[in-house]
Design a protein that fits this description.
The protein is an all-alpha fold. It has one domain. Helices cover 62% and strands 0% of the residues. The model has no long low-confidence stretch (mean pLDDT 89).
């Protein structure tokens, strides 16, 4: 796998972990304004990174936007094809 592609995917996974963890925290601390701000920033960054990745390398999930004239989901390497 291209090192830039792999690094971008690791960054997406990291920011998604942050968002999911904050989501769980906010389930029990719904009035923590700082956590809400950090969560919203993480979600926004995740969207930006996912859009960048998908424009460069193709869809991350079958529900991702299909950039291009063909069905690109099938073109991406499968997880076991690393």
């Amino acid at each position: 796998m291209d090192p830039n592609r792999e690094n971008l995917m690791k960054e997406i996974m990291s920011i998604d972990f942050t968002a999911i963890d904050l989501n769980l925290y906010l389930d029990t601390h719904p009035n923590d304004q700082k956590a809400i701000m950090v969560y919203n920033a993480a979600v926004q960054k995740s969207r930006m990174l996912r859009d960048k990745y998908e424009r460069l390398y193709g869809p991350i999930t079958a529900l991702s936007p299909n950039y291009g004239p063909s069905w690109r989901w099938i073109e991406s390497p499968w997880p076991w094809e690393k």
